Amino acid sequence: MTLIRVGEVELDYERGGEGPPLLLIMGMSGTALHWGEPFLERLREQFDVIAYDHRGVGASSRLDGAVTIEQMAQDASGLLDALGLQSAHVLGISMGGMIAQELALAHPEQVRTLTLGCTYCGGQGSALADPADLQELVAAMTSGDRERAIRAGWEINVSEGFAREPRPWADFQAIARRRAVAVPVVMAQMQAIAAHDTKARLPALAAPTLVIHGSVDRLLPVANGRLIADQIPGSRLEVLDGVGHLFFWELPERSAQLVSEHATSKV
Q1: Considering the entire predicted model, what is its pTM?
Q2: How many C-beta atoms surround the C-beta of residue 109 within 10 A?
Q3: Other beta carbons less than 10 A from residue 265's beta carbon
Q4: Burial level of 118, CB count in 10 A (0-12/13-18/19+)?
Q5: Average pLDDT of 187-191?
Q6: Which domains does the chain have, with CATH numbers?
Q7: Which pLDDT does position 78 carry in this prediction?
Q8: What is the arrangement of strands in the sheet containing 236-240, beginning at the earlier edge strand?
Q9: Per-residue pLDDT tens for 103-146?
Q10: Alpha-carbon distance 222 to 239, whole Å?
C-alpha cells in the first residue's frame, strides 16, 4: 500500500484494476484488507478500485482522541482530490456507508453512483445491534485475548452457517493478525457511529443509490437498509436472504455484480 497526504493526515491506500474509479470505504474496526480478495478480484475486473485505511488504522496517521463521521467523509473527499480524481463510484459498508452518506451529501459532485451496504442513517426507526450482542463483542475486544476478539468479530459479522466455513474463517483470521486495529481506535469509531444521523437529510441525496443488506445482519439489522432506501428518492434496495453483515464475504460474486450493474446502468 502507499501513503498519500490528505489534508492534516496521511492515508494508506491501494489501487488496482481497469475501468472507472471505484472508492471503497470500510467499516468500523476494518482495514483495506477486510474487503477480501474474492470480492476485490471481481471488482478489479470492472473498476479502478481504490481501498484505503482510515486515520488510526494501519500505516495511516495515528488517531489521538475523538473522530467524527464528517471528518472521515472529508478524508474520503480529500483522497479523491489527492489522487486527481474529480469523481468516482462509491461503495461504503457499515460505518463506511455512514461516511459515504456524508460524502455524497457534502460533495455530490464527487459521487457518480452510491452503493450503501449494511449501514445505518440514525434517527427514528434506525436500529443498532442487540445490546447483548454488542456487550459480548465489546467484552471480547477489551478482554486482552486476541483470538477471542477475532472469533467474536467473525461470528457477529456473518451468518451462522457461514461462520462454520473453515476457509473464510482462516482468511479472516489471517487478515486480523496481519493488520490489527487498536481498541481505542475502534472505541472512537463506535462513538462516531453513535452520533451519526443523516435521516432528515437523505431525501436531498442526488446520487443514484443502491442499498444492499443481508436479511440476518446482527450488527445493523435489515430494517436499517429499508429505512435508508425509503428516505432516498429513486434508490433501490437489494436484500440478500440468509446473509449476515459482511454480505460481500458470503456472496462476493453476487455483491460485485450488484455494484457493477448499478454503476453501469447509471452511466
Answers
A1: 0.96
A2: 10
A3: 11
A4: buried
A5: 94
A6: 2-265 (3.40.50.1820)
A7: 98
A8: 2-6, 9-16, 48-52, 21-25, 88-93, 111-117, 209-214, 236-240
A9: 999 999 999 999 999 999 999 999 988 888 888 888 988 888 88
A10: 8
- Cell triple for residue 111? 459521487
Yes or no: say if 109 and 116 are a contact pair by the CB < 8 Å rule: no
Residue with cell 468500523: 28
Residues in the chain: 267
Residue with cell 443488506: 213
